[in-house]
Design brief:
Rossmann fold, five-stranded parallel β-sheet, 11 helices, 12% strand, globular
Length: 234
């Protein structure tokens, strides 16, 4: 099985990658389109030269690798994707070879966290618009992506991961609940910038606290992609 997990930044996507890669039967690939994304957009992300040198910059080469053999010839692989990396023209029939998961988080938490490491971030950098496009693209192809809320996993890791495995047809493995602290072989080269907290972890963090209080550009970004509360039924 090839599991494509689509997320914006600053979610539990890295922790979820560690959960899957801690299974004896599953490898992982960390943000395979990152270098191609930086090459196309010219964005000056932290560690840009190192990222460009660490991965193929040709999207077709990335797709070929994703559709090829799994790492170490393992039965399953988890592809950790950032939604904003999927630029126009990258979609194709290859997505039908994957099982898809869409990982979401409250926009205020994503914007607050991401702008601490990349203060120039705009709405196009935090993935929400692209996640909606990804959902529309997948469902238009007759695919049925599983939607997962990161805070639900943090509140009930075993229950949510068992449910996720059941939905995608993967046997449950309790090894997904914990992993050794420190850097991992599956980490992208950018890990020193972004993975400090998750490297200190040995499992999923507990429930999240209050939403951060945003102002200025950060608040505008979060409000632009936050769904208004639904009116209760009469």
């Amino acid at each position: 099985m090839k599991i494509a997990c689509w997320s914006g930044p600053r979610n539990i996507s890295t922790a979820l990658m560690y959960a899957f890669s801690n299974r004896a039967d599953c490898g992982a690939v960390d943000e395979p389109f990152y270098a191609a994304y930086l090459e196309r957009t010219g964005k000056d992300h932290p560690m840009r030269p190192e990222i460009l040198a660490s991965q193929p910059r040709d999207p077709e080469a990335v797709v070929a690798a994703l559709c090829g053999s799994n790492p170490a010839e393992l039965p399953h692989v988890y592809h950790k994707h950032m939604a904003q990396h999927m630029l126009p023209g990258l979609w194709g029939d290859w997505v039908a070879e994957m099982v898809h998961v869409i990982l979401i988080r409250h926009p205020a938490r994503v914007v607050s966290s991401f702008r601490k490491g990349y203060a120039e971030a705009g709405l196009e950098d935090v993935g929400f618009v692209q996640l909606a496009e990804i959902y529309d693209n997948l469902t238009a192809r007759g695919l049925d992506p599983v939607i997962v809320e990161g805070s639900d996993v943090r509140a009930d890791p075993e229950g949510m991961l068992r449910a996720l495995c059941d939905r995608i047809g993967l046997a449950w493995d309790p090894a997904m609940l914990e992993w050794p602290a420190g850097p991992k072989d599956v980490d992208g080269v950018w890990a020193p910038v972004w993975y400090g907290a998750v490297h200190q972890s040995t499992g999923f963090a507990g429930p999240e606290g209050e939403l951060p209080d945003l102002d200025g550009v950060a608040r505008e970004m979060a409000e632009a992609v936050t769904c208004p509360p639904r009116n209760p039924s009469p």
